[in-house]
Structures are given as C-alpha cells and as structure tokens.
Amino acid sequence: MTDTAIVLIGHGTVEDLDDLPAFLGNIRQGHAAPPALVAEVRRRYEAIGGRSPLLDICRALAGRLEAVMRVPVAVASRLSTPTPGDVLARLAAGGTRRICAIPLAQHSSHVYRAAMVAARDGLALPGRAPLALACAANWGGRADLANVYAARIHELLPPDRAGTHVLFTAHSLPMAVLDAGDPYEAEVRAAAANVATILGLRDEEHDVAFQSQGAPTGRPVAWLGPDLRAALEVARTRGKTHVVVSPIGFLADHVEILYDLDVEARAWAAELGLSFSRARSPNADDDLVLVLRGVAEELLARDIWS
Fold first, then answer.
1. What span, in angstroms and rounded, lies between the C-alpha atoms of 128 and 162?
2. CA 167, CA 292: separation in Å to the nearest integer?
3. Residues 96-136 pLDDT 10s
C-alpha cells in the first residue's frame, strides 16, 4: 500500500481569531456572517482560552493512526485549512495514487465524502489518472466506538445511580435536512441506545438531546430537538440531582464542547439545581485510534475505489 494514504477529514476550526469571519462565511455557505455573530463566536473562543484544540487533536490522532497503519495519514478540514484540495495536492505530489478518507463526523459521512470528491475532481494532475478515492460510510454505530463512549461515562457514574441522569448529546441539524431523508437522528439515537445497553442504564436513566443549534438567520428555522436546556429541565422535573453529559456525536474537544457544554450547559444545570459532569472526549486516545484502524482496514479490504 505504498501508493495509499489515509485522510482524516473533519469540520475545521480557526487557529487565529481574526480568521473567524471567513470561517463563519464558509459555514454559512458563502454568506457573510453579521458582525454580531462574529463577536459572539469570538467571545466563546476567548472563553476557552482563545483557541480551539481541535486541529491539534486531529493532527495527534493522525500521527498515532499512521504509526499503527504504516501508511501516511493526513488531516483535512472541510470548512477551514488545511483544505481537502491542498492536502490531496500534497499527497499526489509525493506519489500517492489512492486515498482512503475517514470522516471525523461519524454520522455525516456523505457531507465529507462530497467535499473529498469535489477536491479530487478539481485537482489538476497533467498526464496522470485522477486519484482513486474510497470514503468510509457512517461508522457511528460500531460496537467498538460504543465501548469508547461507555468507558468514559462509566468513570463518572456513582454506585447509586438513583439521582443521576445521563444525557447523550449530538449537534442539532435543521429539520429540513431530516425531512429530506437524512438518517442522522435515527443513527444518533441508536448509538446512544447501544452505549446505554453497555452501561446497563434503564430507559428512565438516560435521554438524547441535540445541542449547538445554529445562529439565527433572520428567518424561521426549525431545529432537531429536544435541545439541551429542555432536556436538563426534564431531568430536574423527574427528580434528578446530577447529570452526566456524554457528547457522543463528537469525537474531539472543540468550542461546542468546551464552551457549549462546559460553560453554557454547566451554568444552565446550576440554575436548575443540578450538579453537572461531562464525559471525556475520545480525542487522540488509544481506544479511538484502534476504532479508526478498524474503519480503515475494513475500507481498504473492500478495495472499492472511485
């Protein structure tokens, strides 16, 4: 497989807060972000130290996966740098002919595959065939990934769970996306159910919530719910005194965990009289590296390239 490389493609982030307007413009599909939105997002980054650790974590994850796979592993970002196009150009210049792409959004593979295909198709390779591309399908339902999340929740569960409620969270999506047939909600709920089964949680001991809804656009947009604030309120009305939040829709720490959960949701819980714990993210830990190794090996064994 000396002509093969793996690309871990994630959402992206900024390393310099002055790049936020461009980053938010990418998220908004080319529409400039209002100054108030840029200021609010900047405030959130500043609240977590001025910089997201996401890209550093992805690079560490790539390095560890490269060590076990013994093929080059690169990181690309769908909405920021390093762009898929730049990464593919660099790999192609080094002799790569086949790209195994693994989205770091385990329930939204099609979005990241589209970004990789567009980058590959826009890459000029005079006198050479286009890069062959294989992209992992949604892999959020894997049993080994469920074990990763379960282990981190287990660290926080008290022996007596009577007052404890587990909230599994994932990023919300506009309902229009779900209405068009995206399986995201069903897959997230199934993944949460798998983790709950491993932990032996009863139905009344856990729920799913969808966090980090997008910024207001000036027009009504229905978002997938329940949102996290509403889920915390339900837990309180059920007599719970402690919540353990497990962001199973995410793999690594970034602003939507370090701010939206650790700052904002923690404050909501305190207002409701709930104690709050957040399960550790997999980040670049050994167990996630082994899951990604399995994803990569299964994809390469299929030998399906386009």
1. 64
2. 25
3. 999 999 999 999 999 999 999 999 999 988 888 899 999 99
CATH number, domain 143-278, options 3.20.20.140, 3.30.390.10, 3.40.50.920, 3.40.50.1400: 3.40.50.1400
Pairing type for strands 206-211 and 275-278 reads unpaired
> Do 82 and 289 meet the contact criterion of CB atoms below 8 Å apart?
no
Tell me the CATH number of domain 4-139+285-302, given options 3.30.230.10, 3.40.50.300, 3.30.70.1450, 3.40.50.1400. Answer: 3.40.50.1400
**Rounded CA gap, 145 and 191, in Å?**
9
Strand partners, 165: 243
Tell me the pTM.
0.95
Distance (Å, whole) CA 287 – CA 25: 35
Q: Report phi then psi at 150, rounded to 5.
A: -60, -40
Q: In the block, which residue shows the tokens 């997002």?
A: 41
| Average of per-residue pLDDT across 195-201 | 98
Are 251 and 57 in contact by the 8 Å Cβ rule? The answer is no
Q: What pLDDT, on a 0 to 100 scale, did the predictor assign at position 129?
A: 87
Q: CA distances (Å), 229 to each of 169, 218, 245, 261, in order?
A: 11, 22, 12, 11
